[in-house]
Amino acid sequence: MHKPLTVLGLETSCDETAAAVVQLGTNGEVHYLADQIYSQIDEHALYGGVVPEIAARAHVGALDALIERALAEADITFEHLDAVAATTGPGLVGGVMVGMMSAKAIALAHNIPFLSINHLEGHALSPLISQQGDDGPLVFPYLLLLVSGGHTQLLSVEGLGQYKRLGSTIDDAVGEAFDKSAKIMGLGFPGGPALERAAQKGDATRFVLPRPLTGRPGCDFSFAGLKSAVRRAWEELPVKDDQARADLAASFQQAATDVLANRTAHAMDMFAKAHGARTLVVAGGVAANTVLRTRLTEEANNKGFEFIAPPLSLCTDNGGMIAHAGALHLRAGRVDDLTASARPRWPLDERAAKAHPASGSGKKGPKS
Ligand code: KG4
Ligand code: ZN
């Protein structure tokens, strides 16, 4: 029998400043005692993408107050915490250092353990947070499609600290492709939701766009060629009106989701063969896309997989997923040294990254 663990989690690796307090119960159940997020979207919108220097300064400006608010929301003080966890990579290094140094200072001042958490691991374990209760808890192993502004990966999540990368983008992340395509068409920032809205009134068959790597063996992704094709199609358009924008947005969205669905179908075959288990989970900001969710539901049905799409608040960057990962490691007996350093590139599966360094280095870059 475990005792409940209360952990503060800090997330500052991109453009969300987040502090959350999570309690990990005796049987692994998770309670959010506080969940504070400050989105920097307005500060970056002017530039059409995340500017690393602005992000780092905004984290410095927002984090202390967010931590105070999180403790107030949880109705606790630092003395009630069992540990403090922070994202220490991958991500924009200036921002990562802000959260990491704050967490170390709290650990030192209040004499509690510090946990250095890989942002990708936070995402990889986050489906466990919501899958408690009515349908029974989600159990290892499961197949995870992580689709965000900085990452596009297929991971076999086999246990705490046991992640196998089945595939990853060899160039741009899919969220980045959404954002850049939206920018080309003058659709505002962040581009993903704006592009999905525009696509609702569009004809997805009007533009013939490439589907890189589709039909090839394996589970790697590529989106750079698709983004370039969107640029060419837009530049060659004689009339750049709202209908053209909607049609190109719909054609892009169709092509991008086709690529994701095809590669995920391969991964489901590999995963089922290796484990005999059949659960597919999607996470990351692009998981908000309804066309993608529908496609993944169909693909999962075809392969006899259960498909789980956790609530969006868990899919996108948040402090709770970092606190949760920290609490699981703490329970497993891990505590990190205060000399731990920031790792702007930090692959979750080091073996796969060494064997195939061009992809999945864990880079999380600016979204512009
Ligand atoms: O996970 P997230 O909040 O932050 C990162 O870690 O990057 O993901 C943000 C990404 C952005 O690229 C954004 O444009 C994309 O998710 N996104 C979407 C949608 N909503 C957010 N992409 C496509 N369709 C959407 N509805
Ligand atoms: Zn993320």
List keywords for this structure.
disordered C terminus, alpha/beta, 368 residues, binds zinc ion, 2 domains, 10 strands, 13 helices, Nucleotidyltransferase, domain 5, globular, binds 5'-O-[(R)-(carboxyoxy)(hydroxy)phosphoryl]adenosine, five-stranded mixed β-sheet
Topology:
Layout (H helix, E strand, L loop, with lengths): L4 E7 L4 E9 L5 E10 L1 H5 L6 H23 L8 E7 L3 H18 L3 E5 H7 L1 H4 L11 E6 L4 E8 L2 E7 L5 H11 L6 H9 L24 H13 L5 H34 L3 E5 L6 H14 L2 E3 L3 H4 L3 H13 L18 H6 L13
Parallel strand pairs: 1-4, 4-5, 6-9, 9-10
Antiparallel strand pairs: 1-2, 2-3, 6-7, 7-8
Bound molecules: 5'-O-[(R)-(carboxyoxy)(hydroxy)phosphoryl]adenosine and zinc ion.
5'-O-[(R)-(carboxyoxy)(hydroxy)phosphoryl]adenosine (KG4) binds next to helix 6 and helix 7.
Description:
With 368 residues, the chain is of the alpha/beta class. It is built from 13 helices and ten strands. The strands form two sheets. The protein has a five-stranded mixed beta sheet, with helices on both faces. Strands 8-7-6-9-10 form a five-stranded mixed beta sheet, sandwiched between helices. Strand 9, helix 10 and strand 10 (306-308) form a beta-alpha-beta unit. The structure holds 5'-O-[(R)-(carboxyoxy)(hydroxy)phosphoryl]adenosine and zinc ion (ZN).
